[in-house]
């Protein structure tokens, strides 16, 4: 009987999500999570019946996707952590019971880490996956990371267009990523170019109008003159000896020598 | 009373077993490399325990590293290749050296050897000295190859009084083909005085455990090990520590060989044992368990958990060298995955340096070197060529050698060729995902080569040379390389070329000083590590004090004699040496 109640709530949640009403879905989720807790299913334990666990996993997955739609990164991370024991449970990873959404959620998690520039965690998560490149959901963040690292920003830009992302949830990160690559490109420009024509800069930094470029240049405190953007010339590095470190090192050596002799 | 008994048994073993000892030694000789052989020969010829100590300890490490080689080699194929090598050597050498001893029944020899180890264990307990236990453990690897049900069941029957629970468990595990054991068991059992030391009990269990593992009888081995671990967990004796560490080692090994869920199922037990070992300051077990847990986590790629374990535990500094090496290897692996290449490099260099140079540890050294090569490449360094020439590494590092060449030249094509042809090798070694990260390094090297060779080159040419998809990508990539300090150059967008800046004089910068500093720090830490790694015999300083006092007395005498005026040079020289 209790399971029927859970099932009904679950079905209701699916309906609200399908309607796209994420605000009420997240309200429904909190009551569902309490219901799961009462059935001892929020964390998979050997005693919980399999059917309840499958419900629990599905609900948590919906919760994760809902929090993405609401751009609540912290909530998504929580859901992701809660889902991990479900994915690790051998009972829940047989071909019949394996989750359809697992790679999607993992991919979103990777993207979140990437947008936070948490590359170490990104690779740690990646190490956990088998054959990551075969899955379109996982491949997307992997390729993004690779392009970001080598500097193919035009490819990142193309990939973040809505037609290229594997599912609608991924598009939520596009904005963040575009901001990231713009900043990256800007920092590269400062070093690599003396000046750039505004018309070229517009295309290179993926902005819509030249006005936006000028706005962007102002934010970065670049000089705009005669239709060109001039980057501040770097002050020549001081050749003065870093006396502090030298003294520190020498004292260190002296100290070590003293202990040896 | 216990002391008396153990003393008596010591005497018995010293006088009665010299013949057997020799045979044991000769097999040890055969096992270890020539350098070690000299050491163990010394151990065999000298009968006083004091002189025996240093080789004993070396030997114990020897064994451990053998296990290491077996465990840290990720591939089954390579393991057999490696373990066969020392095996072959063994046969050849023992043919030459044992020669005349062949008529002796190997069963009797083995049984005597096991019995002899009992007396050593008794001595370890009565003198509370772990060195005797280590000596017993050293003989494991030579004994291991000779074990068979006949030997084991005979020993079990002769050791335990008839209805001892361990006896039943052991015979059940051996699968007892020998049914005639009941004949002499009552008399022999009672002779040992009824009270059986837990150390001997555990030692026999350990032998059976290893036997089951060697017979690939994994199911039985796993359940037997689980039972055994529970027994050990309930015992609290410091003289049991090194034996317990071994038991845990094989416990984990057996479960590792079983199909997947088994490996995660032992984690709670290992963690519980680690807690107990830490509380009891049981350093051997503690260090073994930490490495086992790390290995366990890494095998299922639970990097985060492994990292948490490292941050929450303190690895005992006084642990055996090989355990430290193993720990450093795992730590290096974790750090490499977390992109902390400098830390990974430090740990791996430490691991390689600490690993013993015997053939038995080749697998470990190979694995550590493979990882180290990748980490060095990721750091932007090119590993030294001499690594690839070392005979014991050459073959297994071949794929890595090709990889290094591709990265060094900066050609994406040959990089991916190597990656694809040797993908299986890299995946087996667990370095594949790390190697994938090298792609950007290859591109950077390519750009760097071009910037060094041309003072001005068009973006189109760069694009063609690096086989990039578009000129646009090339521009971004070069711009990023400039920002990251890979090259010194400027870009001209309208005309589409890259202009290299004049090369800086490196010696005018901080660079040489930093390189110098790094080397000094390395030497310092090497020195400090060596000081820490030195072993000092117990109570040696008291001996020195005594010597000093004697010397002082002699000096006084000397002074007196000088005063008396009757001393010649020879005497003075002699006295001086004595000081």
UniProtKB/TrEMBL annotation, chain A:
InterPro entries: 26S_Psome_Rpn12 (IPR006746), CSN8_PSD8_EIF3K (IPR033464), PCI_dom (IPR000717). Transmembrane segments: none annotated. It holds the Pfam family CSN8_PSD8_EIF3K. The keyword Nucleus does not apply. Keywords: Proteasome. One of its GO terms (biological process) is proteasome-mediated ubiquitin-dependent protein catabolic process. GO terms for cellular component: chromatin; cytosol; nuclear periphery; proteasome regulatory particle, lid subcomplex; proteasome storage granule. It comes from the Eukaryota. The keyword Lyase does not apply. Residues 75-247 form the PCI domain. PANTHER family: 26S PROTEASOME NON-ATPASE REGULATORY SUBUNIT 8. Belongs to the proteasome subunit S14 family. This is (Perigord truffle) hypothetical protein. It comes from Tuber melanosporum (strain Mel28) (Perigord black truffle).
UniProtKB/TrEMBL annotation, chain B:
Residues 1-104, 549-579 are annotated as: Disordered. Residues 325-505 form the PCI domain. InterPro entries: CSN3, PCI_dom, PSMD3_C, TPR_PSMD3_N, WH_DNA-bd_sf. The keyword Transferase does not apply. It comes from the Eukaryota. One of its GO terms (cellular component) is proteasome regulatory particle, lid subcomplex. One of its GO terms (biological process) is proteasome-mediated ubiquitin-dependent protein catabolic process. Keywords: Proteasome. PROSITE patterns: PCI (PS50250). Residues 1-14, 78-104, 549-563 have a biased composition (Basic and acidic residues). It holds the Pfam family Rpn3_C. GO terms for molecular function: enzyme regulator activity. The keyword Kinase does not apply. Residues 564-579 have a biased composition (Acidic residues). Belongs to the proteasome subunit S3 family. This is (Perigord truffle) hypothetical protein. It comes from Tuber melanosporum (strain Mel28).
């Amino acid at each position: 009987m209790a399971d029927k109640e859970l099932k009904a709530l679950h079905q209701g949640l699916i309906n609200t999500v399908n309607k796209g009403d994420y605000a009420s879905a997240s309200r429904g989720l909190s009551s569902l999570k309490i219901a799961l807790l009462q059935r001892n299913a929020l964390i998979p334990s050997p005693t919980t019946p399999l059917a309840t666990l499958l419900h629990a996993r599905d609900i948590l997955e919906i919760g994760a996707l809902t929090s993405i739609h609401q751009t609540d990164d912290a909530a998504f991370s929580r859901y992701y952590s809660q889902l991990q024991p479900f994915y690790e449970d051998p009972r829940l990873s047989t071909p019949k019971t394996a989750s359809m959404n697992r790679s999607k959620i993992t991919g979103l998690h990777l993207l979140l880490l990437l947008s936070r520039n948490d590359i170490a965690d990104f690779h740690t998560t990646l190490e956990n996956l088998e054959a990551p490149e075969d899955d379109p959901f996982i491949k997307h963040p992997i390729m993004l990371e690779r392009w970001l690292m080598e500097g193919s920003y035009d490819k990142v830009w193309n990939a973040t267009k809505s037609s290229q992302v594997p599912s609608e949830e991924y598009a939520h990160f596009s904005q963040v990523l575009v901001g990231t690559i713009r900043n990256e490109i800007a920092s590269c420009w400062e070093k690599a170019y003396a000046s750039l024509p505004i018309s070229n800069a517009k295309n290179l930094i993926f902005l819509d109008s030249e006005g936006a470029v000028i706005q962007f240049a102002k934010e970065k405190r670049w000089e705009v003159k005669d239709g060109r953007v001039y980057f501040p010339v770097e002050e020549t590095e001081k050749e003065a000896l870093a006396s502090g470190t030298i003294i520190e090192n020498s004292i260190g050596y002296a100290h070590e020598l003293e202990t040896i002799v | 009373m216990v002391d008396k008994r153990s003393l008596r048994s010591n005497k018995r073993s010293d006088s009665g077993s010299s013949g057997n000892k020799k045979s044991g030694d000769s097999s040890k000789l055969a096992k270890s490399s020539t350098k070690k052989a000299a050491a163990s020969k010394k151990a065999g010829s000298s009968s006083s325990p004091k002189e025996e100590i240093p080789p004993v300890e070396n030997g114990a490490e020897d064994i451990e590293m053998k296990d290491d080689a077996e465990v840290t080699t990720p591939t089954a194929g390579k393991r057999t290749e490696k373990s066969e090598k020392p095996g072959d050597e063994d046969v050849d050498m023992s043919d030459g050296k044992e020669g005349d001893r062949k008529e002796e029944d190997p069963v009797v020899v083995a049984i005597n050897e096991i019995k002899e180890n009992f007396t050593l264990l008794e001595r370890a307990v009565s003198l509370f000295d772990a060195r005797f236990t280590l000596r017993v453990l050293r003989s494991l690897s030579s004994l291991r190859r000779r074990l068979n049900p006949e030997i084991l069941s005979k020993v079990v029957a002769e050791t335990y009084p008839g209805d001892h629970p361990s006896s039943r468990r052991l015979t059940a595990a051996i699968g007892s083909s020998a049914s005639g054991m009941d004949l002499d068991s009552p008399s022999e059992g009672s002779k040992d005085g009824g009270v059986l030391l837990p150390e001997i009990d555990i030692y026999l269990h350990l032998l059976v455990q290893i036997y089951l593992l060697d017979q690939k009888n994994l199911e039985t081995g796993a359940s037997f090990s689980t039972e055994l671990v529970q027994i050990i967990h309930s015992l609290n004796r410091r003289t049991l520590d090194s034996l317990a560490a071994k038991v845990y080692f094989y416990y984990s090994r057996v479960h590792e060989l079983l199909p997947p869920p088994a490996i995660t199922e032992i984690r709670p037990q290992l963690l519980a044992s680690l807690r107990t070992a830490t509380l009891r300051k049981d350093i051997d077990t503690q260090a073994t368990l930490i490495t086992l847990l790390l290995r366990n986590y890494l095998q299922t790629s639970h990097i985060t958990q492994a990292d948490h374990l490292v941050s929450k535990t303190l690895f005992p500094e006084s642990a055996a060298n090989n355990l430290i090496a193993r720990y450093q290897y795992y730590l290096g692996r974790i750090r490499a995955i977390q992109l902390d290449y400098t830390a990974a490099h430090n740990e791996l260099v430490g691991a390689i340096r600490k690993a013993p140079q015997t053939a038995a540890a080749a697998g470990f050294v190979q694995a550590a070197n493979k990882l180290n090569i990748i980490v060095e490449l990721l750091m932007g360094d090119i590993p030294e060529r001499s690594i690839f020439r070392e005979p014991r590494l050459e073959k297994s590092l071949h794929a890595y050698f090709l990889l290094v060449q591709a990265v060094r030249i900066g050609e994406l094509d040959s990089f991916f060729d190597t990656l694809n042809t040797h993908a299986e090798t890299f995946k087996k070694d667990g370095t594949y995902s790390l190697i994938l990260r090298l792609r950007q390094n290859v591109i950077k090297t390519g750009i760097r080569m071009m910037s060094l060779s041309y003072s001005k080159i068009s973006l189109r040419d760069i694009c063609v040379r690096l086989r990039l998809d578009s000129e646009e990508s090339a521009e971004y990539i070069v711009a990023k390389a400039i920002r990251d300090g890979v090259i010194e150059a400027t870009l001209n967008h309208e005309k589409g070329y890259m202009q290299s800046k004049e090369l800086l004089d490196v010696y005018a910068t901080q660079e040489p000083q930093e390189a110098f500093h790094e080397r000094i720090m390395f030497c310092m830490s090497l020195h400090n590590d060596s000081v820490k790694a030195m072993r000092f015999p117990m109570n040696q300083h008291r001996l020195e004090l005594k010597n000093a006092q004697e010397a002082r007395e002699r000096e006084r005498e000397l002074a007196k004699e000088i005063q008396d005026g009757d001393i010649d040079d020879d005497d003075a020289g002699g006295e001086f040496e004595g000081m």
